[in-house]
Amino acid sequence: MRTTRPSVLFVMPQLNAGGAERSLINLFNELPTDCADMSLLLLNKTGSLLSQIPEYVNLIDTPSEIREMYGEKKSLQMRLWWMYANAVSKIHTKDDEARRQYRWKKFYSSKIGMLRQKFDTAVAYISGESLYYLVEKVYARRKVAWIHNDYESAGYHKGFDEPYLERVDDIVTISDKCANALRRQFPGLKNKIKVLPNISSLSAINKQSLEFYPQEYSSQGCNLLSIGRLNPQKGFDFAVDAAKILKDKGLDFHWYIVGPGNSKEINGLNRMIKRNGLERNVSLLGIRDNPYPYIRNCDIFVQPSRFEGKSVVLDEAKLLCRPILVTNYQTANEQITDQKNGVICDMTPQSIAESIMKMLYSPELLKQIRHNLQESRDRWSTNIEDYVDILTNVG
Which residues form the Glycosyl transferase family domain (predicted)? Predict the structure, then answer.
């Protein structure tokens, strides 16, 4: 039976422990449960955060044709077709983003039917195939695209994305610099672009951070932590090279990297670790369902990224009052003020290593950073009303 509340659908590829995925869970936790009839569709119903979806959110059954395309279980006929689609797409382009776009346009789109349910508002909460599916296959009075990265730095393909962005009502991004990049790329769509910073749930993060002490952490020396997907954007190759410099300087430390990666990314970083003799100093921990105890108990949280939009994990580290080191990617100073609530260094392994050493041997600096972070935490508030407005205002 239809209620008077608006119906809202979120579309995501899956629900692994990435920044966009965690920000969606945080958003669900902060939204008033009675503001809308909330639904979530995952193209592939997998991910370590599935258990954290609140009860009031309806997890829609993924349509069978999508489940076969994106899931692990495929019929023989679908597997052969899927292998052919991927092979042709790889021949067309070696770029991963362009390959997925080609695959959607030439193969996936024609085999996927319209979603049967209708909604007042539908949201692609991440760019890429979630957006293409939203625009082509979902009935909704309003459609919203969410872009979590700096569009220019991320190397997205404007020519493919623009026709889809033209067909949504709002384009939401997470920082002023990300919005400006979108306005430069899509000047004709500038009136659609809005800024809503990612939501971080202070109460949920604090509670989860106390659940355990990481058994991997060393009781001696310094525990460094980085979190993110193991792709080039996150700069973990910088981290491994910086770790070699720290080891050569005689620092007693262990650097833990939490996050998912494909076999190519994992093997590449492990080869770097082995080549530099860092097996006792750097560990790839993979996905952790609850990363917050790792953040709470690290000595320095290091983000060696090449680019970011507005980092979810940085906000989480700030809420847990951990000393933070970030590289000077374009949007870094939107979250970190150098020497105040963290340290910003050059985007080189040498600068990362030198900054870690400086922080460890500057107890007064670390004390001041923690103090400033605690003061900011005490003033923490969310802009949840703006989220409710964009999700429920259907005219």
Answer: 224-372
CA distances in angstroms from 221 to 70, 140, 224, 252, 281, listed in the order given: 43, 55, 10, 5, 11
Q: With 0-12 CB in 10 A as exposed, 13-18 as middle and 19+ as buried, what is 42? A: buried
pLDDT bin (cut points 50, 70, 90) of residue 2 is very low
The rounded distance, in Å, linking the Cα atoms of 306 and 327 is 8
Helix, strand, coil percent values for the chain (each to nearest 5): 45, 15, 35
* Residue whose C-alpha is closest to residue 317's, from 225, 218, 179: 225
Write down the pTM of the prediction: 0.80
Kind and range of the H or E run holding 303: strand 300-303
Of the candidates 299, 293, 287, the residue with the CA atom closest to the CA atom of residue 361: 299
Are residues 322 and 298 in contact, defined by beta-carbon separation less than 8 angstroms?
Answer: yes
Rounded mean pLDDT of the chain?
92
Cβ neighbours of 217 (radius 10 Å): 16
* Helical spans, DSSP H, in the chain: 19-30, 64-70, 76-92, 96-103, 109-111, 129-137, 151-154, 158-165, 176-185, 202-209, 236-248, 263-275, 292-296, 312-319, 349-360, 363-378, 384-392
What SS3 state is found at 239? helix
pLDDT digits (tens, 9 = 90+) for 229-287: 999 999 999 999 999 999 999 999 999 999 998 899 999 999 999 999 999 999 999 99
Q: Measured in Å, how far apart are the chain's first and last C-alpha atoms?
A: 22
Ordered domains of the chain (ranges, CATH)? 7-199+383-392 (3.40.50.2000), 205-361 (3.40.50.2000)
User: With contact defined as beta carbons under 8 Å apart, do 226 and 255 qualify?
Assistant: yes
Torsion of CA 224, 228, 230, 235, to 10 degrees: -70
What's the rounded Cα separation, in Å, for the pair 319 and 304? 19
Alpha-carbon span 232 to 65, nearest angstrom: 32
